[in-house]
Amino acid sequence: MAKQHRHVGYGLPLILAVGLHLGLLVVSVIRFPSAEQEPPNQAIVNATLVRAETATDQAQQAQQQARAEARTEQQRREAEAAERAEAERQAAAEAERQAQEAQRQAQEAAQAAEREQAREAAEQAAAEAERREREAAEQAAERERQQEAARQRREAEEQRQREAEAERQRQAEEEARRQREAEEQRQREAEAERQRQAEEEARRQREAEEQRRREAEAERQRQAEEEARRQREAEEQREREAAAKRAAEAAQNSLDQAIAGESEAVANAKQAEEAANGFINLVRQAVEQAWSIPPNVPDGATAEISVRLGPSGELFAANIGRSSGNSAFDRSALSAVETAAPFAELRELPASVQRQYREFNLRFRPGDIR
Questions:
Q1: Full-model pTM
Q2: Closest Cα to residue 56, out of 125, 116, 9, 5?
Q3: Which of 36, 231, 251, 263 is deepest in the core (most CB within 10 A)?
Q4: Between 166 and 45, whose confidence is greater?
Q5: Using one digit for the tens of pLDDT, what is the confidence trace for 264-288?
Q6: Rounded to 5, what percent of the chain is helix, strand, coil?
Q7: What is the dihedral of CA 227, 233, 236, 241, to 10 degrees?
Q8: Cis ω before 342 (30° cut-off from 0)
Q9: Beta carbons within 8 Å of 106's beta carbon, 6+ residues apart
Q10: Which is more confidently placed, 136 or 103?
């Protein structure tokens, strides 16, 4: 018995032994009807013990199987119960001795009690083994759950790492894509800038060409106008020369007439002078009426206009003989003469003095014409 207890755990055998001994003590105190005592039947006791041991062995095998599944926990428990086991074994030995004494006093009752107790012990051992199996299964399930939880944590960590790696890769790809897009955008902008510069250069060239064309056209137009002006001046010059010729012829005729009628001229000299003075006054009045003095002209400004008329009083030429230093004032004086012409009163002068008043000067001052 002691050797068997050393091979298995001490908890369950100790409980069985104590229960068995207590049952034997109870049976030993019960009085049975007097009967002739017979020598104790060692065979029955031994057989009962063998059967109890067999049930215990079965429980021990079940316990060993459960312990194999939860060895680490059982070893810890065995280490904690090491000291208690020795005292329990001593108490079990003493109880066994007392039980043997009681068995000799009540063999049949002890045999029945032993059978019942063996059965109960076997049931308890089976229940204990089943409980231990459940505990071992639960522990195994708990270990499996822990392992599964650890596996899930590892998988979750691996998943997080994969996701982090995927996120880093996605960010790297996104950064590369942004860089490519930025580079493409810079290239597009550079190309657009080159195209804009090319278009701007083409536009400047077109504008320069258009400007040269306009300048050439303006130059052609200016030359045409200049040519037309020269032609007009030539025509006017021819007309003036023709008029001068006619005037010279007329003057010659007048001179002839004057020579022929010298006496009459002397007599009419005074009348001619008065007529001439009247003509000059009329010219001054006509010019003053046509004169528009520009603003901001200084009081001392003076311009002199040289006037040359045709035989009929038409204006052949009007030039600035002396400038006032103010171009606006000079232009206004010249414009007044051109506006007031022709001066038909010249034809009313005597033929002897008409030629003398076809050329004269007009002096323009603010508020006065002389």
A1: 0.30
A2: 125
A3: 251
A4: 166
A5: 544 456 666 666 677 888 888 888 8
A6: 80, 5, 15
A7: -120
A8: yes
A9: 27, 28, 30, 32
A10: 136
Q: What type of residue is 300?
A: G
Closest to 14 (Cα-Cα) out of 108, 66, 88, 94: 88
Tens digits of per-residue pLDDT, 323-348? 888 888 889 889 988 898 888 887 87
Rounded-to-integer distance, Cα 20 and Cα 214, Å:
137
| Amino acid 288: pLDDT | 87
Separation of alpha carbons 250 and 257, rounded Å: 10
Which residues, 6 or more positions from 265, have their beta carbon under 8 angstroms from its beta carbon?
258, 272, 352
Phi, psi at 8, each rounded to 5°: -125, 180
Q: What's at 7, amino acid-wise?
A: H
pLDDT over 90 at 189, yes or no? yes
DSSP-assigned states of every residue in 220-267:
HHHHHHHHHHHHHHHHHHHHHHHHHHHHHHHHHHHHHHHHHTHHHHHH
Query: The tokens of 328 are what?
Result: 């606006």
Q: How many CB atoms lie within 10 A of CB 172?
A: 10
Among left, alpha and beta (phi > 0; psi -120 to 50; other), residue 313 is: left
User: Which amino acid would we find at residue 175?
Assistant: E
Tokens of 69: 């599944």
Mean pLDDT of the chain: 78
Residues 6+ apart with CB under 8 A from 360: 280, 283, 307
The structure tokens listed for 77 are 């428990």
Neighbours of 357 (CB within 10 A): 20
* Residue 315, beta-bridge partner list: 309
Using a 10 angstrom Cβ sphere, with 0-12 exposed, 13-18 middle and 19 or more buried, the burial of residue 338 is: middle
Task: For residue 367, give the DSSP letter.
Answer: T
